[in-house]
Amino acid sequence: MQLRYSFRVYPNGPQCSALARAFGCARVAFNDALRVRETARVAGLPFVTSAELSKNLTAAKKTPERAWLAEVSSVILQQSLRDLDTAYRNFFDGLKGERPRVGAPRFKSRKDNRHTIRFTANAGWKITDGGKLRLPKIGDITVKWSRALPSVPSTVTVVKDAAGRYYASFVVETGTDETLPAVAPVVGIDLGLTHFAILSDGTKIDSPRFLRRAEKKLKKAQRDLSRKAKGSANRAKARVKVARAHARTADARREFHHQLSTKIIRENQAVAVEDLAVKGLARTRMAKSVHDAGWSQFVTMLEYKAARYGRTFLRIGRFEPTSQVCSQCGVKDGPKPLNVRTWTCAACGTVLDRDTNAAVNVAKAAGLAVTACGARVRPGLVPAQREEAGTHPKPQPVTTGRQAGISVL
């Protein structure tokens, strides 16, 4: 499995200037290649191949208008062309229905919030004996190593985010020796807003609501930004303050997701979650709270960590009636309004907690043997998983199921 390890880097003044030059050259190479292909498309000419774009780039570096492209590593420019190919491939695959639809490639701007350059192995970059990152035509950059890399990285990507922070992102290949010892528990997870996660053993994890807690500071920073004259230096400083405030919120949320997902994966042999329609929920009046929870990021972490550490990860269809079925006797007694948090099953008389009952049903729908008290039981019939693209007021008939997979990179 390929994983990405990111570390904070601290370039000095000349190195920041060299990185800014590299970001600009990579952007120009991308835009020039995109312009060539768009011009050919409008004129009705054949699709311009990657080889032709590479030749055009080499020729451009010999002209007075683009001679400054030779001041940076040629690998950076070639990787920009590879990024353009990837953008086109994703666009065409979306049109063919092989992946979710994405827009056509667009021109990059120097005012974009995020800038990246990528060095492959043939670029000659290395990690020095002193622990610094040596990049061609940039120099030795100080790196804040928070952990050791599990293997020799194949590529490194230097990233500058909206808050002005620099990161070095390494792609490494992990071995098969990371499988954790087998454990007995299995767990179903019901995600929510009042409680971020409810486990099938009855554990309820409160939602930290990072965005809600930081709203006061964010409001003040955004208000200060709106009062600055456009194009002024003070506005640029205020924009960075807003970006840093949002970055702190996003970092805290990501850290919470990492800690919780790692804990769940380490303590359980199998994990089941419901495939939520996050895009649909994000169009409702609960949009801010849905985005603040970050369910998709959390589920993605569970998925790749389960694959990495030898655990089982399962998704169930979003239309499974987990809140309508009694987890003890299996009787379905219909939908209930959201204000009903507990009820008594009319068939068996069991008092059920809405969220815990849903978490147990998530585990049962995935074929896991678990009850609300954590005891193992014999699993019953498992309904076929259903998958629906988009959101609909009523479930549509689907003839095929979907097997959960993982794609880290």
Order of helices and strands: EHHHEEEEEEEEEHHEHHHEEEH
Q: What are the segments in which pLDDT stays under 50 over at least 5 consecutive residues?
A: 370-408
Largest sheet properties: 7 strands, antiparallel
Question: Cα-atom Rg, whole angstroms?
Answer: 25 Å
- Look at the structure and give the mean pLDDT: 85
User: How many separate helices?
Assistant: 9
Q: Which descriptors apply to this entry?
A:
single chain, about 400 residues, alpha+beta, 7-stranded antiparallel beta sheet, 5-stranded mixed beta sheet, 14 strands, about 35% helix, elongated, disordered C terminus
Write up what this structure looks like.
The chain contains nine helices and 14 strands. It has helices at residues 13-42, 50-60, 74-95, 210-226, 233-267, 278-281, 287-293, 295-308, 354-365; strands at residues 2-10, 115-119, 126-127, 133-135, 139-144, 155-160, 166-173, 186-191, 195-199, 204-206, 270-274, 312-316, 342-344, 351-353. Helix 2 packs antiparallel against helix 3 and helix 5 crosses helix 8 (295-308). A seven-stranded antiparallel sheet has the order 2-6-7-1-5-4-3. The longest helix is centred in the middle third of the chain and has 35 residues, at 233-267. The termini are close together. Strand 4 and strand 5 (139-144) form a beta hairpin. It has 409 residues and is of the alpha+beta class.
Short description:
The protein is an alpha+beta fold and 409 residues long. It has helices at residues 13-42, 50-60, 74-95, 210-226, 233-267, 278-281, 287-293, 295-308, 354-365; strands at residues 2-10, 115-119, 126-127, 133-135, 139-144, 155-160, 166-173, 186-191, 195-199, 204-206, 270-274, 312-316, 342-344, 351-353.
